[in-house]
């Protein structure tokens, strides 16, 4: 492609984990070449714009909300589903922006989140062992031989599903759906728990009055009617991410055009590994997951590899320690990184360290543990004087029953009624909104602790 990017065979010669094993290399080659002919899904300039916004997060001037499905599926690429996800993310961001008086950078786990790293390569049911489901990008969810085969043609379906999703997302966020005057409409048939509903309706009413005042004063610009929304996913599959990497015609630099922001997972963040080798060459803003076994030195060594020039907004550390470990493990990591002089965005993923299996066999998370990890995250940052820059959550706009607790006190027995995730349990729309109120309170406290005046960054500066 260019000497700025290693060839696919060079990439595959590096240590790598969590990759599919395809049985037809010719077909894979054909798929990769076909993908390389297709237009980029996102534009380099949009990735730069997001990097600038994340730089504001690292600089304490904004908060980041990153959320969406654990695993998107081809079957769920439907208008209602995408709209519901967007609606919950927009409602959460309004709650946080208004409550904490801080701009919120909105990033979906969307339009590309189709590949999953797994703990085990296989799954056994009733004595039959088959390859584990690795996301629709790799194989099918159904438990039979044919579905579980790793099929390279699925990468083309990922491209098409991502393009269709992005197209609708762009239309929604720029075409009137995200108009702040629609706040009540986003809520129609939404929050059903009376406590949260009351809070949301009260907040929407206050914002409506404030907007009315602004409009009466003659303030009427795009910021009230449209939002900037970005797409992100885990850059897990080397073949796909390589095929989507393009040289930007403006800067002559490579960008992974499969999403605005891509992240490296907890299982694939080896500094000498293939994912890091590819992503260190592309210009996108990058997320790096850090679990409870990560040290401050690990964090620094991967950051040095991915971002030797310490470019503002390039690195977001997404910490997912688990509620049990966050207060013990996180401080050392933050201290080591901050002492090095690096400025990164610190984002809390309160989901991935808090997964367990119930007696009735469901993989789940307790809403209380999610809140507890977030409280630990805020407490640690408040104590160290660093900035709790964002949250990364697995959620859906539907009323699923996948995580326990929350406003409706979902119990293990309730999981049976709407457990629909293809991989890990997601917060439903009520739990998500409830979490947004909790975050907005903690954010206000963090800002008050620092006695920071309200600052409105100039996104376009
Ligand atoms: O989303 C993260 C991982 O893909 C997921 O937690 C792995 O789940 P597993 O342990 O069931 O394989
Ligand atoms: C796999 C994921 O997380 P982690 O790498 O932190 O386990 C994920 O966010 O989908």
Characterization of this structure:
The protein is of the alpha/beta class and 461 residues long. It has a single domain (8-178, 226-449), classed as TIM Barrel (Alpha-Beta Barrel), CATH 3.20.20. Helix content is 40%, strand content 13%. The protein contains 14 helices and 14 strands. The protein has an eight-stranded parallel beta barrel, surrounded by five helices. A two-stranded antiparallel ribbon has the order 3-4. Strand 9, helix 11 (296-306) and strand 10 (315-319) form a beta-alpha-beta unit. The longest helix has 23 residues, at 194-216. The radius of gyration is 21 Å and the shape is globular. The mean pLDDT is 93. The site of phosphoenolpyruvate has 9 residues, from loops. It catalyses: D-erythrose 4-phosphate + phosphoenolpyruvate + H2O = 7-phospho-2-dehydro-3-deoxy-D-arabino-heptonate + phosphate.
**DSSP helix fraction:** 25-40%
Terminal CA distance reads 33 Å
Overall, the morphology is globular
- The domain count comes to 1
Unreliable stretches (pLDDT < 50, length at least 5) are none
Structural class: alpha/beta
Might you state the CATH topology name? Answer: TIM Barrel
The CATH superfamily is Aldolase class I
Tell me the Rg in angstroms: 21 Å
Strand order of the largest sheet: 1-2-5-8-9-10-11-14
Question: Can you tag this structure with a few keywords?
Answer:
about 450 residues; alpha/beta; TIM Barrel; 8-stranded parallel barrel; two-stranded antiparallel sheet; about 15% strand; globular; binds erythose-4-phosphate; binds phosphoenolpyruvate
């Amino acid at each position: 492609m260019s000497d700025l990017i290693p060839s696919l065979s060079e990439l595959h010669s590096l240590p790598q984990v969590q990759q599919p094993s395809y049985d037809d290399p010719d077909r894979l080659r054909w798929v990769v070449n076909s993908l390389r002919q297709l237009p980029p899904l996102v534009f380099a300039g949009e990735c730069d714009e997001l990097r600038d916004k994340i730089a504001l997060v690292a600089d304490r001037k904004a908060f980041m909300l990153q959320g969406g499905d654990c695993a998107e599926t081809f079957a769920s690429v439907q208008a209602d589903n995408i709209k519901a996800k967007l609606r919950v993310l927009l409602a959460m961001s309004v709650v946080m922006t208004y409550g904490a008086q801080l701009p919120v950078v909105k990033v979906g786990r969307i339009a590309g989140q189709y590949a999953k790293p797994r703990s085990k390569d296989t799954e056994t049911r009733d004595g039959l062992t088959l390859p584990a489901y690795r996301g629709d990008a790799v194989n099918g969810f159904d438990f039979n031989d044919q579905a579980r085969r790793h099929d390279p043609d699925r990468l083309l379906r990922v491209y098409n599903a991502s393009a269709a999703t992005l197209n609708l997302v762009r239309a929604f966020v720029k075409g009137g759906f995200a108009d702040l005057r629609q706040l009540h409409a986003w809520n129609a048939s939404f929050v059903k728990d009376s406590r949260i509903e009351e809070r949301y309706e009260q907040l929407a009413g206050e914002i409506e009055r404030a907007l009315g005042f602004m409009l009466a004063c003659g303030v009427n610009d795009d910021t009230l009617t449209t939002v900037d929304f970005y797409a992100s996913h885990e850059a897990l599959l080397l073949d796909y991410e390589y095929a989507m990497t393009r040289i930007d015609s403006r800067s002559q630099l490579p960008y992974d055009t499969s999403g605005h922001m891509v992240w490296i997972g907890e299982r694939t963040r080896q500094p000498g590994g293939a994912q890091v080798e590819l992503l260190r060459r592309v210009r996108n803003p990058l997320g790096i997951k850090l679990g409870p076994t990560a040290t401050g030195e690990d964090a620094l060594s991967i950051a040095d590899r991915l971002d030797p020039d310490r470019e503002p907004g390039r690195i977001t550390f997404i910490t997912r320690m688990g509620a049990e470990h966050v207060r013990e493990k996180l401080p050392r990591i933050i201290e080591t990184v901050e002492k090095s002089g690096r400025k990164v965005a610190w984002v809390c993923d309160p989901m991935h360290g808090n997964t367990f299996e119930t007696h009735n066999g469901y993989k789940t998370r307790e809403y209380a543990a999610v809140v507890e990890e977030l409280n630990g995250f805020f407490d640690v940052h408040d104590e160290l004087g660093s900035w709790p820059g964002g949250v990364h959550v697995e959620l859906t706009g539907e009323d699923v029953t996948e995580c326990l607790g929350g406003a409706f006190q979902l119990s293990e027995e309730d999981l049976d009624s709407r457990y629909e995730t293809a991989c890990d349990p997601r917060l439903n729309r009520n739990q998500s909104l409830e979490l947004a109120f909790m975050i907005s309170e903690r954010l206000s406290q963090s800002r008050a602790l620092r006695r920071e005046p309200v600052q409105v960054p100039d996104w376009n500066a």
